[in-house]
Amino acid sequence: MKALFINGSPRKNGNTAKLLNSALEGAQAAGANVELVNLYDRSLNYKGCMSCFACKIKGGKKGVCSFKDDLLPILEKAIEADVLVCGAPNYCSYPSANLRAFMERLIFPAVNYSDYAHPVILKPKASATIYTMNCPNEEVYKRIDYDVLLNRNAEAMGMFGPTEILCSYDTYQFNDYDRYDAASFDEPHKALIRDTQFPKDLQAAYDLGKRLVEKAKEL
Predict the structure, then answer these.
(1) Residue 150, helix vs strand vs coil
(2) 3-state class of 3 per DSSP?
(3) What is the domain partition of the chain in residue ranges?
(4) For residue 208, with 0-12 CB atoms within 10 Å meaning exposed, 13-18 middle and 19 or more buried, which class applies?
(5) Alpha helices (runs of H) in the chain, residue ranges in sequence order
(6) Is-contact 36 21, C-beta < 8 A?
(7) CA distance readout (Å), 113 to 48, 57, 152, 158, 205
(8) Which of 9, 25, 26, 137 could disulfide-link 16, Cβ–Cβ 3.0 to 4.6 Å?
(9) pLDDT > 90? residue 153
(10) For the domain bounded by 2-217, which CATH number is listed?
(11) What gap in Å lies between CA 219 and CA 216, rounded to an integer?
(12) How much is the pTM?
């Protein structure tokens, strides 16, 4: 059982990374072999979909991107994974650009232009997407259409098998709020959420990791 975790945050020790690592620990406790990849690693040089359509050529290799760059080995690991968990902060109402590029390259080759109802799935997998954000709660999340803008990206992973979404709201963003021009945020409130709610989010991520492994066993 292979579980791959994709960190789409520039921070290797930030909120997104912490949640991913907690999910990783849950998957490991459930018996999976685990690996975490940081997409913002400086050694990685890659782009989103190049619209080469190699994945759509008749008689060609289907279901996996073949564009050769630093992302290709990671995409191959994602295809082979039984569990795939992606995480990203919310940037301008969307996942980070690096995660979006990864998802383009993973999902588009599976889209079947001859039969949209039957994607080209080389290996089914249980998946999840973890989002972190300043958005204060689920009510506001829906009111500002994040349930459309963010969920649509995440739900596309459902073509590979059962998928889930975990949101961590009102996250503590800066190490020192006094240093930044961010007067709309109340640091004591943010600290309270960090100390009371974020541990619950970490537990939810851990439970998610365990749950996905069990789901993957049924595929």
Answers:
(1) helix
(2) strand
(3) 2-217
(4) buried
(5) 15-29, 72-80, 97-107, 138-143, 146-155, 187-196, 198-217
(6) yes
(7) 19, 11, 20, 17, 35
(8) 9
(9) no
(10) 3.40.50.360
(11) 5
(12) 0.96
